[in-house]
Structure to design on (678 residues):
C-alpha cells in the first residue's frame, strides 16, 4: 500500500541541527518557567489578598490564561501588540505567551499548596519576630514550592510542548522551527517530524524522571 | 515586668476577655488554669501582639504592646511563645528550625546562631537530633524543639499555651520537665495549662480564669488548698 | 477612538469558525471519551505490567507536542494514500489525544472507589457487570466529572492547533480577518472573548461541582 520509500538517513544526518533546536526549545521553556513561577507567586498572593484592587487584576490574568488557547496568547503577543506599534520577535512573543500561560496555571497550583499550609505556621514565624513578608518568604514559600513541586514540573513539560507553537508565528530556531525548515527544503515531512517527536518525547521523559529523582532525594521530611 | 490592665477582647459578638488585670514580675512563674473558652489562651496571644485588643493596655517592660508606635517584630524577640500545636517548620532540620530566627531576624552569623541553638537543644535533650527533620520526631520532641526555638531568641519572657495538650499522655512528662528546668533557672513564665500538678509544683502564683474573667489568683497552696471562689472550687473538683 | 471596518459578515465568518472549533471538539471528545472509558477500565482492571504496552502508547500522546502529532498524522495519511481530509485527520488525532488523558481520569476515578465498597457489593451477590454499572460508575463519575470537564475545555483550546493543517476554525478565521482588515488587537480581542465565553462558564460549573462534591464527602 505504500508507494513511498522512507529516507531516514537524511533525517539522521540532520540530527545535530535538530538537537541545536532542542537547546533553544529548552532555553525558552526554562526562561518561561522562571518568569512564570515568579509572576505566579505574586498572582497567588494577590488573589488571596483582602484588597479587591489586587484581587481583580490577578483573577483576570488567571482566568484569561486558563480559558483561552495558549496559541491565542502567543498570537496576542505577536500580532495583537502590533496594533500599538509594538512588534515582538517570534522568540520574545513565544516566550511571553508561554510565560503568561504558565503564570496563570501555576498561580492556581500555588494557591492549592498555600491552602495546605496551616495558618499556625505563619503565626509561629510572627511570634519569633518575623514581619509578614519575612514569614512568607522564609516559612510559607519554601513549603509551598515543595508541595507544588511535581505539579510545577508537569507545567514545565507543558511549557516544553508549548514551545512547538512558535513555528506558527515564524519561529525557526527551536526544535519545531528547525524541523519545519528542513521539511520545507526536502518535503520529507514524516521522517523529520518523527525524529522531532522522538526528541520531544525523550526530553519530556527526562524532565519528569529528573523531577521524580529530585523529589525523592530532596524532600525527605 | 508584664502589666495587663483592664484588657477587653472579643471575637465578633463573643466576649473572650472581660477586663483582665494581671502583673507578672521578673522571675515569676504564673500558671493560668480554667475551662475551655475561658479566654486564657487568647490572653497569651494578646501579650505578644498576635491578637489586637479592644480596650485596656498591656505593657511589657514599660512598652505598650498595642500602641501604634510599637515595633512588634522587635518586641516579640523579648517574648517567646510556644503553642499547643508544635508548629515545627517541616522543611527545615531541627538545627535549622532553631537557627532560622536568630539568623534572619537578629542577623546573627550562622556559626553564632548554631552555637546558641546547640546549647538550647542540648538543654531540652535534643542534642543528638540536630540534622533530623521534625517529621521524624515524636510530639514531645517536636514540642521541646519549639521551646528551644523560642529560647534561641534569648527572650526575657516565655509564654506557654497548653503546650502538653496535644501530646500523648506518656510524652507529657518530658515537656513538663523542660518547663520546670526553665522555671528553676529563673525564667519569667506565664503557663496556660491543664496540668494541675505542674501548676501546683512550679508556679509562684496560680490564676483561675472563668468566662473571660480572672476569678481568683493566689499562691498555689491557697488556690489548690483553700480556694475562695465557688467557681474555682467547682473547676478543681472536676479536673481531679 | 473606535473605528473599525469589521462588518456583520465578518462576525458571521468568525462565528462559523467557532462552529468548526466546536464541531472538532465534539467529535474529538466523543471519540476520545469512548476510547478513554474502554482503556481506563482495562487499565484499572488488569495488572500494571500487563497494561504496560497500552500505558506506553497512550503516554506518547501526552509527551509529544500536539502540533507535531497533527503534522505527522497528516503526512502519514498522505503517504499511505488514505485520502482523508485534514478535518477528519484532525478529529482522529485529537480523539486519540483526548483518550490518553481520559484514560487516566477514568482509571483514577475507578481506583478512587474503595475496595471495601466493591467487596460489599460483590458479597451481596452482584455480578462484576452489576458492580461496575450500579456501584463503581456512579461513584467514579463524581470524581471524574470535574476533570473530564477540564479535559473537554482543554481539547477545545488545543483544537486551535488544527489551523496548521489549513482548517478554518476560530483562530484561523481571525487570522484571515486580521490580514484583510489590519486590526489585529481588536479582532484578536473578539476572538479571545469568544473562546472565553465558551470556556469560562463551563469551567466555573466544573469548579463548583468539584467543591460541592468535596463538601459532601
Amino acid at each position: 500500500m505504500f508507494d513511498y520509500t522512507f529516507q531516514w538517513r537524511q533525517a539522521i544526518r540532520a540530527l545535530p541541527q535538530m538537537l541545536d533546536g532542542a537547546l533553544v526549545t529548552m532555553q525558552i521553556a526554562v526562561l518561561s518557567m522562571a518568569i512564570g513561577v515568579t509572576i505566579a507567586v505574586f498572582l497567588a498572593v494577590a488573589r488571596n489578598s483582602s484588597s479587591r484592587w489586587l484581587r481583580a487584576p490577578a483573577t483576570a490574568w488567571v482566568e484569561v490564561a486558563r480559558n483561552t488557547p495558549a496559541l491565542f496568547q502567543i498570537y496576542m503577543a505577536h500580532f495583537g501588540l502590533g496594533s500599538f506599534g509594538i512588534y515582538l520577535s517570534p522568540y520574545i512573543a513565544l516566550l511571553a505567551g508561554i510565560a503568561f500561560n504558565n503564570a496563570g496555571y501555576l498561580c492556581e497550583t500555588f494557591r492549592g499548596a498555600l491552602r495546605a499550609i496551616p495558618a499556625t505556621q505563619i503565626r509561629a514565624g510572627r511570634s519569633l519576630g518575623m514581619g509578614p513578608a519575612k514569614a512568607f518568604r522564609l516559612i510559607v514559600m519554601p513549603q509551598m514550592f515543595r508541595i507544588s513541586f511535581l505539579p510545577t514540573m508537569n507545567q514545565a513539560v507543558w511549557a516544553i510542548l508549548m514551545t512547538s507553537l512558535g513555528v506558527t508565528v515564524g519561529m525557526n530556531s527551536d526544535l519545531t522551527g528547525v524541523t519545519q525548515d528542513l521539511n520545507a527544503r526536502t518535503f520529507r515531512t514524516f521522517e523529520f517530524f518523527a525524529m522531532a517527536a522522538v526528541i520531544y518525547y525523550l526530553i519530556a521523559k527526562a524532565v519528569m524522571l529528573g523531577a521524580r529523582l529530585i523529589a525523592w532525594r530532596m524532600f525527605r521530611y | 515586668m508584664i502589666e495587663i490592665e483592664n484588657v477587653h477582647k472579643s471575637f465578633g459578638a463573643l466576649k473572650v476577655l472581660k477586663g483582665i488585670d494581671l502583673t507578672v514580675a521578673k522571675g515569676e512563674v504564673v500558671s493560668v488554669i480554667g475551662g475551655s473558652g475561658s479566654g486564657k489562651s487568647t490572653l497569651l496571644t494578646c501579650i505578644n501582639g498576635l491578637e489586637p485588643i479592644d480596650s485596656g493596655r498591656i505593657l511589657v517592660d514599660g512598652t505598650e504592646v498595642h500602641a501604634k508606635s510599637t515595633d512588634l517584630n522587635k518586641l516579640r524577640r523579648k517574648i517567646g511563645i510556644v503553642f499547643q500545636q508544635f508548629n515545627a517548620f517541616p522543611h527545615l532540620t531541627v538545627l535549622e528550625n532553631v537557627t532560622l530566627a536568630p539568623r534572619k531576624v537578629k542577623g546573627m552569623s550562622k556559626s553564632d546562631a548554631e552555637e546558641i541553638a546547640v546549647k538550647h537543644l542540648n538543654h531540652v535533650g535534643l542534642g543528638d537530633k540536630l540534622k533530623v527533620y521534625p517529621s521524624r520526631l515524636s510530639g514531645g520532641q517536636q514540642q521541646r524543639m519549639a521551646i528551644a526555638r523560642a529560647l534561641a531568641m534569648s527572650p526575657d519572657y516565655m509564654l506557654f499555651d497548653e503546650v502538653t495538650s496535644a501530646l500523648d499522655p506518656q510524652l507529657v512528662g518530658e515537656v513538663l520537665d523542660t518547663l520546670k528546668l526553665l522555671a528553676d533557672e529563673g525564667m519569667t513564665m506565664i503557663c496556660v495549662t491543664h496540668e494541675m500538678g505542674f501548676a501546683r509544683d512550679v508556679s509562684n502564683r496560680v490564676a483561675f480564669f472563668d468566662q473571660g474573667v480572672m476569678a481568683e489568683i493566689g499562691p498555689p497552696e491557697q488556690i489548690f488548698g483553700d480556694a475562695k471562689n465557688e467557681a474555682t472550687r467547682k473547676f478543681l473538683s472536676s479536673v481531679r | 477612538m473606535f473605528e473599525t471596518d469589521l462588518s456583520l459578515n465578518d462576525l458571521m465568518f468568525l462565528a462559523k469558525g467557532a462552529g468548526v472549533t466546536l464541531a472538532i471538539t465534539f467529535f474529538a471528545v466523543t471519540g476520545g471519551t469512548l476510547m478513554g472509558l474502554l482503556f481506563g477500565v482495562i487499565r484499572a482492571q488488569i495488572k500494571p505490567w500487563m497494561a504496560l504496552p497500552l500505558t506506553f502508547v497512550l503516554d506518547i500522546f501526552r509527551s509529544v507536542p500536539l502540533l507535531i502529532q497533527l503534522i505527522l498524522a497528516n503526512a502519514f495519511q498522505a503517504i499511505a494514500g488514505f485520502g482523508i481530509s485534514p478535518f477528519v485527520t484532525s478529529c482522529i488525532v485529537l480523539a486519540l489525544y483526548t483518550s490518553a488523558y481520559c484514560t487516566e481520569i477514568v482509571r483514577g476515578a475507578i481506583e478512587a472507589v474503595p475496595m471495601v465498597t466493591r467487596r460489599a457489593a460483590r458479597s451481596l451477590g452482584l455480578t462484576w457487570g452489576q458492580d461496575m454499572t450500579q456501584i463503581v460508575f456512579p461513584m467514579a463519575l463524581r470524581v471524574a466529572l470535574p476533570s473530564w470537564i477540564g479535559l473537554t475545555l482543554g481539547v477545545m483550546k488545543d483544537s486551535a492547533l488544527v489551523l496548521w493543517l489549513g482548517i478554518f476554525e476560530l483562530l484561523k478565521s481571525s487570522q484571515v480577518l486580521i490580514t484583510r482588515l489590519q486590526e489585529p488587537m481588536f479582532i484578536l480581542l473578539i476572538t479571545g472573548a469568544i473562546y472565553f465565553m465558551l470556556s469560562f462558564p463551563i469551567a466555573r460549573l466544573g469548579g463548583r461541582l468539584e467543591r460541592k462534591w468535596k463538601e459532601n464527602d
About this structure: The interface with chain B takes residues 118, 120-121, 123-124, 126-131, 134, 138-139, 142-143, 146, 220-221 of chain A (CB under 8 Å). Residues 9-218 of chain A form a domain with the MetI-like fold fold (CATH 1.10.3720.10).
